[in-house]
Amino acid sequence: MGGSNSEKTGRPDPVEVHGFTDKGSIRPNNEDYFGYYIPPDAGLKERWGSLFAVADGVGGSAAGEVASAEAVNVLLQEYYFGDHTEKVPERLKNAFRHTALHIYDLSISHASNRNMKCTLTTLLLKQNRFFISHVGDSKILLLRGDDLIQLTKDHNLVGKLVRLGLITPEDARNHPNRNILLKSIGEGPLLLPDFYSGNVKAGDLFCLITDGILEHATSDELKSFLLDKGPSEEALTELIAELNRRGGFDNMTIVTVKVNRIPF
After folding, report:
1. Under 8 Å between Cβ of 256 and 205
2. Which of 92, 199, 215, 234 is the 20 to 30 Å CA partner of 85?
3. How many CB atoms lie within 10 A of CB 115?
4. Tens place of pLDDT for every residue, the chain, 264 residues?
5. Does a cis peptide bond (omega within 30 degrees of 0) precede residue 263?
């Protein structure tokens, strides 16, 4: 991870990152995983940007933990050090596809990892742009001013039903089939992720979350919490503690990426 120089300069870092993951109150293991890399070298950061990723293991057992950790770490390795095109959007897509193939190969070549799968959602910040690659039902949200916008599309059954207008977002939170994924890393050797891009503004707060975060909180509650508390290790710890008090039925991971100034 890139280091902080805010104490040396007296100014906040261009990008402020905080992350917290917890197994919740019910699950025996934490199959969520997150990681990121902010290049300490200014030239490398200008060339490739800073990359953040979150994954959620699917299907229980230790294989879910393996899948999510492997996916995040392989993705970071492939993006920065893989033999891929110099064009950043295509480079991210290629690294993502390579990661999906890697997880699939592991799932069919080792009995202990049989059929393991995971979600994988990534955010790349470069100059004044963001690029997202995404598979599964983890989410990237953007808090811009007073608006909290979901930038990714959920690849699960209830997400599809909401988009079709057959159920409401409120119905989806408690739907008996809310955990059925329609697309995940590891399901096949070839996988096309969703890809999104857009402009970044100073003050933007990106949130990468696994589905457990909104198991016991609404999007409005999450927005109010972020506006009131701001992103910090203490705030995220407090948020997860509250969600555990409400039941903590799933693993929970949240990573906040605050853009203090541009260029970052």
Report:
1. yes
2. 199
3. 13
4. 443 333 344 577 899 999 999 999 999 899 999 999 999 999 999 999 999 999 999 865 558 899 999 999 999 999 999 998 889 999 999 999 999 999 999 988 877 777 889 999 999 999 999 999 999 999 999 999 999 999 999 987 676 777 777 777 766 767 666 677 889 999 888 888 999 999 999 999 999 999 999 988 999 999 999 999 989 999 999 999 999 999 999 999 999 999 999 887
5. yes
The Cα 220–Cα 114 span in angstroms is 39
State how far the Cα of 75 lies from the Cα of 48, in Å rounded to an integer. 14
Q: Quick count: other Cβ atoms within 10 Å of Cβ 220? A: 9
d(CA 198, CA 73): 25
Strands (E), 136-242: 139-144, 147-150, 194-199, 205-209
3-state secondary structure 173-201: HCCCCCCCECCCECCCCCCCCEEEEEECC
As a whole number of angstroms, the distance between CA 132 and CA 149 comes to 14
Residue type, 77: Q
Q: How far apart are alpha carbons 211 and 145 in whole angstroms?
A: 24
Instruction: Enter the tokens of residue 179.
Output: 């955990």
